[in-house]
């Protein structure tokens, strides 16, 4: 390391998309359009994300945040045009690490400690001592109208639960749904934060299943996993079935200690669904 180009891992996602991974587990996506391009989420803000994406597309870039957890808003302040769900747009119009709650303010420092302990390195221009997620001026995403890219429009779907204003974006022409933190395979589906709502989350997974079954997408790109397509999308059925059983009190759980205190942990397929200790 070195240069910011080495910090991000960029791969193609379909003909008009890019997957941008940061520190091996924080994903953003760039969707190229003829008149506008959209950056879905902004990672954790360690590198020059704006420099990276403006080198990949020629059209102006709008950042759309799937939600305002710290690991999705990291580099948002580098951009001039940032959109977020009205439900997560703070009164002062600035999306910040503590917009939803205080639960995430220590995450950048915790990340640096763990990354260095694992032998990780940073881009040369990055200063771990002063690392912070800067607040970003933002506006409300036009939920009903979608986002016009010129050659096509991205549809916006509210998918609350993991956070109050969590949303997904559908690139219908490409057959790709950008789902933020709606699934989390091999890791925890986090539903234990203060602002999480279990019932809303179950509804959101149901909505995503309906879209898949209607053929609206065949690839599901989420922030912390490889994109899913084909038969792998059956994890949504497994997840939904398990969530319904949790809702009906038919599923066993263990109580686990997380960075955010105690949570119930339910094993569903390849995910641990972590909920509050009272449901
Ligand atoms: Zn999140």
Description:
By secondary structure, this protein is α/β, with parallel strands linked by helices. The chain is built from six helices and 19 strands. The protein has helices at residues 4-7, 49-54, 70-73, 107-117, 198-213, 235-247, and strands at residues 8-12, 17-22, 26-31, 37-40, 61-64, 82-84, 94-95, 136-137, 139-140, 147-148, 153-158, 167-171, 176-178, 188-191, 219-221, 228-229, 254-258, 261-268, 271-275. A seven-stranded mixed beta sheet has the order 1-2-3-4-5-6-9. Strands 10-11-12-13-15-16 form a six-stranded mixed beta sheet, with no helix packed on it. Helix 5 packs antiparallel against helix 6 (235-247). The radius of gyration is 18 Å and the shape is globular. It starts with a helix and ends with a strand. The model has no long low-confidence stretch (mean pLDDT 95). Residues 67, 69, 162, 181 line the site of zinc ion.
Which features characterize this protein?
Metallo-beta-lactamase, Chain A, 19 strands, alpha/beta, 279 residues, 6-stranded mixed sheet, 28% strand, 7-stranded mixed sheet, globular, binds zinc ion
